Give the backbone structure.
Amino acid sequence: MEREQRGDKQRADYSDAVTGSTEPDESSVERVLEDPDPDTDTEAPEKKHGALREFAILISIALVLYYVMLTFVARPYLIPSESMEPTLHGCPGCTGDRIMVDKVTYRFSSPEPGDVIVFKGPPNWNITYKSIRSDNPAVRLAQNALSYVGFVPPDENDLVKRVIAVGGQTVECRANTGLTVDGKRLDEPYLDPDTMNADPAIYPCLGNEFGPVKVPEGKLWVMGDNRTHSADSRAHCSNEPIDAQRGLICTGDPQAGTIPIDNVIGIERFIAWPPSRWGETLTAVIGVVLGLGLAGILVGTMWTRREASKRKLR
């Protein structure tokens, strides 16, 4: 009897041992369901945060590069008047040319005769200048702040003209000699009689006779290509009353009609807009730049995908 009871107890213990080892209890199943793979939960937020971070970095880099370019390398300028026609198109109320001005070249060299330059007007050239800032104090403050970082044009009288003579040279114009520098008549193929409504062969000075003016060192004598419609060095020079009475101008102090080299912003390189004014050389350059840009985008996309694949593997 005792032997049978002992056998039943052993069978019961054996049955419990087998059942516990082969069938999971409910509590262990619940723990498995409550503890999913942590990588699955964090993968989506990590992707989102990573994309936002990369986007913010790209935008920051773009803004910095844009600021550096406008401040130190090159900047677009709008031609607002007709003083440089037909080389550069501009007039009140029309779509003027937008030119790209190189701000690097003159850090290593000086302006030369024939260069088309953009410069800040000296004080005596700014008498009729009107501010381009808003009358609203808040808007004006925002414009000044954006101008400091290059996103809004500076509130200054920026002008575009052609260099005719540099420091040490003597410029003058007489009806019997035309425009001369150091006694040599200039060849000016950019002058257009139809634009000026005057023929240089008949009216060599295209205005009053002037000079001689010996340009001071560190200064430039500049004139517009549309000579009959340009307020250039001739319009700002100093006159001797006796000479002015007989139609000869710019025989006084040469400082007034010249501009300091320090005022030069840069040299005009090409017309950036509108496309109808692009030349063959600029079209080729734009094609190369666009090609390089597309190649950069392709490389950047491939790099981003590779980095994303690496994160998935981790």
Summary: The longest strand covers residues 264-273.
